């Protein structure tokens, strides 16, 4: 019991640290914006043209829906499967064909699913959920074979845990799965010790490509 409280406190402290870092980045961004505002008009015009052209080139090359994922899973002693290989991180607006379900990363929609303890009762778009994984969220998923009591208990846990989200995924192989960027694990139920262990390690864990990025102000359904 004491260990669980320490783990929860440690996770909460890490999340708060990430949030402080995000606020610091926002302050720096505002300062840079103010400084940029004093640049002469001609410089701004030229810079804007270059930026728009660059962004247009990026969009045209990344909107193909190619996930650019290659690799395979390697299972560790703790039962967690780690993706060994490449996971694309381009923003795309079309559907992406991911090699596993639920996906553990890859090209994704520019907008993330809200993941501040959000529980979705309907399936959500994979490309939006993958963006949430990029921000350091853990995605709890289940299929029709999952026990309702386990689903309810996991939903209650998710609602109390920032940087998590939960939804059904009918196409997944196991009844209940936990997914972080590049990592995945099946669990036997809500009381499986692996649930808390996975949350402790991967909520805003070292695997996070964009630590401290927002899990709010995205999509809510």
UniProtKB/TrEMBL annotation:
Originating organism: Streptomyces capillispiralis
Pfam family membership, one: DUF3105
Biased composition (Low complexity): 1-10, 55-67
Region described as Disordered: 1-22, 55-79
Superkingdom of origin: Bacteria
UniProt entry keywords in alphabetical sequence: Membrane, Transmembrane, Transmembrane helix
Biased composition (Basic and acidic residues): 13-22
Membrane-crossing residue ranges in chain numbering: 31-52
Protein name: Uncharacterized protein DUF3105
InterPro entries: DUF3105 (IPR021454)
Signal peptide positions on this chain: none
């Amino acid at each position: 019991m004491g260990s669980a409280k320490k783990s929860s406190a440690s996770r909460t402290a890490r999340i708060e640290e990430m949030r402080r870092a995000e606020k610091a980045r926002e302050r720096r961004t505002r300062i840079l914006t103010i400084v940029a505002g004093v640049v002469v008009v001609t410089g701004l015009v030229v810079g804007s043209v270059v930026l728009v052209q660059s962004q247009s080139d990026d969009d045209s090359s990344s909107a193909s829906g190619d996930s650019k994922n290659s690799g395979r899973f390697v299972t560790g002693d703790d039962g967690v499967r780690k993706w060994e290989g490449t996971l694309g991180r381009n923003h795309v607006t079309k559907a992406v064909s991911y090699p596993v379900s639920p996906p553990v990363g890859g090209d994704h929609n520019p907008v993330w699913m809200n993941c501040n303890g959000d529980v979705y009762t309907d399936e959500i778009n994979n490309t939006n959920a993958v963006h949430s994984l990029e921000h350091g969220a853990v995605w709890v998923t289940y299929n029709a074979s999952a026990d309702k009591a386990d689903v309810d208990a996991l939903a209650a846990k998710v609602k109390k845990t920032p940087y998590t989200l939960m939804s059904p995924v009918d196409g997944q192989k196991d009844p209940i799965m936990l997914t972080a960027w590049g990592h995945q694990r099946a669990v036997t139920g809500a009381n499986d010790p692996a649930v808390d262990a996975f949350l402790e390690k991967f909520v805003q864990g070292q695997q996070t490509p964009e630590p401290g990025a927002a899990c709010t102000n995205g999509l809510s359904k």
